[in-house]
Design a protein that fits this description.
17 strands, isoprene biosynthesis, eight-stranded parallel β-sheet, 422 residues, 4-hydroxy-3-methylbut-2-en-1-yl diphosphate synthase (flavodoxin), 4Fe-4S, 13 helices, five-stranded mixed β-sheet
């Protein structure tokens, strides 16, 4: 019987082979594709012409972990503001590369504002929004030629809400000549993929190097996104940017993005991601960065911050103490990461368990680097703490949260302090 069994393995499929594109600002280089890890990016929602507000939001997004930040460049005021935004970021020592998002008038703005073209590290071009009719070809060519002049990579980002209608009509005509025509949905998929690849090929014909092109085909449906990217990934070697174009608000947006991206990432498809969440009024824009990081980290593809394992609670845990402690510790760990990254290499791999009762508390705590098992209803008012699988102490009283936080700090300082070589 044993000889018939094969080893049970886990993990995603081998990553799809792709070219590697470099997005550079100063000494900072972000690689997309090739052997590079999947990159998390985000986009501001401030008025780009408001230099201070935009620079502050970019700083917050970068601090949260966004490795690229895209900004809207939609008019002369926004284009004129880009160099000033970069200058403000430099003063704050924020070196995250900026991506300019262009629609309709990008060819004019890049031509008329060379300092904007230079300050950006990458351009995003939507082929469906660069012009109509005869103007489309010349305006697309102008943007590519400017990217070549300033040595900037380009994301050619097709969106099914703004698909090139001439190309779509061509694909529909081809479909009509088939003996068994495709469904309207399949025709739309083909138009998206064809648009992305043909425009990338045209960009190369115009002189843009193949390793300076990233592709995306954005849709808003989970199954649509999976279908399009599965096919797109087989037809080209360009790095691929993943994301639902309008994921939605709150839990719906998080669930939809997680469902779509997790399937593709598990299949080895995708080189950079953005979670397009609609913030609640007054909501934190950085949430989309955290969700993107957590998708990659929970799948085991990257590590960004120590993870907190916490039980959901049940009738044994009528106290909210463990819920509050889990939330406090998760927030505390994330807030420490900007400093810890520089001081304590490897700390992002740490696991912390905050459990609510004796059923799974001790066991889960032993599996974590540091774990605490809080007393459930009717249990002795004591909280054993486990460090690297061994019970180290028991906490009691009203200051358990503060004492446990101090234990975590002490553990990090000892476990992850760089080794000094004499």
């Amino acid at each position: 019987m044993e000889s018939l069994l094969s080893e049970i393995l886990s993990g995603p499929r081998q990553r799809r082979l792709s070219r590697a594109a470099s997005i550079v600002y100063g000494k900072r280089k972000v690689l997309i594709g090739g052997d590079a890890p999947v990159v998390v990016q985000s986009m501001t929602n401030t008025d780009t012409a408001d230099v201070i507000a935009t620079a502050i939001q970019i700083k917050d997004l970068a601090r949260a972990g966004s490795e690229l930040v895209r900004i809207t460049v939609n008019n002369s005021e926004a284009a004129a503001a880009v160099p000033a935004i970069r200058e403000q970021l430099d003063k704050m020592e924020v070196d995250v590369p900026l991506v300019g998002d262009f629609h309709y008038n990008g060819h004019t703005l890049l031509q008329d504002f060379p300092e904007c073209a230079q300050a950006l590290s990458k351009y995003r071009i939507n082929p469906g929004n660069v012009g109509q009719g005869a103007k489309r070809e010349s305006q697309f060519a102008q943007m590519i030629e400017l990217a070549c002049r300033y040595d900037k990579p380009v994301r050619i980002g097709v969106n099914w809400g703004s698909l090139d209608q001439t190309l779509l009509a061509r694909i529909m005509d081809e479909n009509a000549r088939r003996s068994v025509p495709w469904t309207a949905q399949s025709v739309m998929y083909e138009a998206l993929i064809t648009s992305a690849i043909e425009n990338a090929q045209r960009a190369e014909e115009l002189g843009l190097a193949g390793d300076k092109i990233i592709l995306s085909c954005k849709v808003s449906g989970v199954q649509d996104l999976i279908a399009v990217y599965r096919e797109l990934s087989t037809r080209c070697e360009y790095p691929l940017h993943l994301g639902l174009t309008e994921a939605g608000m709150g839990s719906k947006g998080i669930v939809a993005s997680t469902a779509a991206l997790s399937v593709l990432l598990q299949e080895g498809i995708g080189d950079t991601i953005r979670i397009s969440l609609t913030p609640e009024p007054g909501g934190d824009r950085c949430r989309e960065v955290i969700v993107g990081q957590e998708i990659l980290q929970t799948m085991g593809l990257r590590k960004f911050t120590p993870m907190v394992i916490a039980c959901p609670g049940c009738g044994r845990t009528t106290s909210t103490v463990f819920q509050e402690l889990a939330d406090d510790i998760q927030t505390f760990l994330r807030e420490q990461m900007p400093a810890w990254k520089k001081q304590y290499p490897g700390v992002e791999s740490m696991n912390v368990a905050v459990m609510g009762c004796i059923v799974n508390g001790p066991g889960e705590s032993k599996h974590a680097n540091i774990g605490i098992s809080l007393p459930g209803t009717g249990e002795s008012p004591a909280a054993p703490v486990f460090i690297d699988g061994v019970k180290a102490m028991t906490l009691r009283g009203d200051r358990i949260a503060e004492e446990f936080q101090a234990i975590v700090l002490n553990y990090v300082a000892k476990r992850y302090a760089p080794t000094v070589v004499e």
